[in-house]
Automatic annotation (TrEMBL):
Coiled coil spans: none
Transmembrane spans: none
Presence of keyword Hydrolase: yes
Name listed for the protein in its UniProt record: SGNH/GDSL hydrolase family protein
Species: Paraburkholderia guartelaensis
Keyword Hydrolase: yes
One Pfam family here: Lipase_GDSL
Keywords: Hydrolase
Any one GO molecular-function label of the UniProt entry: hydrolase activity
């Protein structure tokens, strides 16, 4: 064979290889087969229920020291006793819920792309978390199926390694804050619930979430999917001076309903998909604005005289941390609600988290904060 022909064949092979890699990345599941254990509908394994998470900073563990290396993040001086809801579940129900091993998972995005293109497991960015938790701070809905994170695609790749173990498991998807929760977007909704820009962002999120659900259900049809609804920025203390009229709040609620109803539509035809209404849960505890659109929130009282107000601050008396993320009380009560909801929706048998357990779990957090040096930031009125 002549030298020129060898060069031509090498170039052609290289081009075909690169094309194959791009096709593998562009078309999820093109080279994936339905796992045999799922296809044969074998009996699910006994033991703990597997739980995976797709989403943003609402679901990323607070005690990650890789991405969240700032010692003042997620609770400031009380970070050691400020827990995110997956961390609460691991401590209270780790014997029944399997979120994967705690450790540092993921690589830089280019290495992840190369690994995935070559057929290896991949994820990005690197963070310290439970293995099945793919939620990343700053993630948008497009990251469920698109670059650089491809959360749903890479989770399914991981699930394919042990398909039988995921029968009866749960994938929780909570995402959309970074697409939908900006002051400017809510301001547009307050004037017109059908405003073009918010509607476009909402539709794009629903599309991405729908594609993620379809991918999971295609290859793991016996895995349950939980979709968490969006909440209202009007309930965040930093916006208490905004939208103080009944009409504005009604318009915002109508816009949020557009997103949440999209999630309900995804679940309506599939008994393996369930919607959790986070806004309804929040308002059942702390309430909402009054009939005139003004803040009118309740105080949640727990156990030994603890009062938790809809305010911002790093100690556990506040619903929100200083960096706007949910506080430890919110996350603990949400973990309690989640267990109850999973049991009701899917017939699971996870031991409910009792009110006494909630108080015992939170005791170190309040003990650390209830000192003469502890301070709080009151609601912005």
């Amino acid at each position: 064979m002549s030298r020129s022909r060898r060069v031509l064949l090498i170039a052609l092979f290289g081009a075909l290889s690169v094309t194959g890699l791009f096709v593998r990345l562009a078309v999820p599941g093109l080279f994936r087969r339905v796992p045999v254990a799922v296809a044969s509908a074998s009996e699910p394994p006994s033991g703990r229920v597997r739980l995976a998470v797709l989403g943003d900073s609402n679901s990323q563990s607070y005690h990650d020291t890789v991405m969240l290396s700032d010692p003042h993040a997620r609770g400031g001086q009380w970070r050691a006793t400020t827990w995110q809801w997956t961390e609460v579940l691991a401590q209270l129900r780790g014997d029944q819920i399997d979120q994967g091993k705690w450790g540092v998972w993921g690589t830089g995005k280019y290495r992840a792309i190369a690994s995935e293109a070559l057929g290896a497991l991949a994820r990005t960015p690197p963070k310290e978390d439970y293995r099945y938790n793919f939620a990343v701070s700053g993630a948008t809905c497009s990251q469920l199926m698109g670059q650089s994170q491809r959360q749903a695609i890479r989770l399914v790749d991981l699930m394919d390694m042990e398909p039988k173990a995921w029968r009866g498991g749960v994938v929780l998807i909570q995402i959309g804050d970074n697409d939908l929760s900006s002051h400017e977007l809510f301001d547009e909704l307050s004037r017109d619930p059908d405003a073009v820009r918010p509607a476009s962002a909402i539709n794009a999120c629903i599309k991405s979430i729908g594609e993620a659900v379809a991918l999971i259900q295609k290859y793991h049809p016996d895995t349950y999917v939980v979709l968490v609804t969006g909440g209202s920025d009007a309930d965040w203390p930093g916006e208490f001076n905004s939208w103080q009229s009944a009409r504005e709040i009604a318009n915002i609620d109508a816009g949020i309903d557009r997103f949440n109803n999209g999630l309900r539509a995804l679940a309506s035809a599939n008994r393996h998909v369930h919607v959790l209404d986070a806004g309804l849960w929040f308002r059942s505890l702390w309430g909402n604005r009054d009939d005139h659109g003004r803040p009118n929130y309740k105080i949640v009282h727990l156990g030994p005289g603890w009062a938790i107000t809809n305010t911002t601050g790093d100690d556990p008396h506040n619903t929100y941390l200083s960096d706007t993320h949910a506080g430890v009380v919110w996350n603990t009560l949400w973990a309690q609600y989640l267990v109850t909801s999973l049991n009701a929706a899917f017939g699971l048998h996870i031991k409910p988290i009792t009110d006494a357990e909630v108080v015992d779990f939170l005791r170190p957090s309040f003990r650390a904060a209830d000192t003469p040096s502890a301070t709080r930031q009151e609601a912005v009125n």
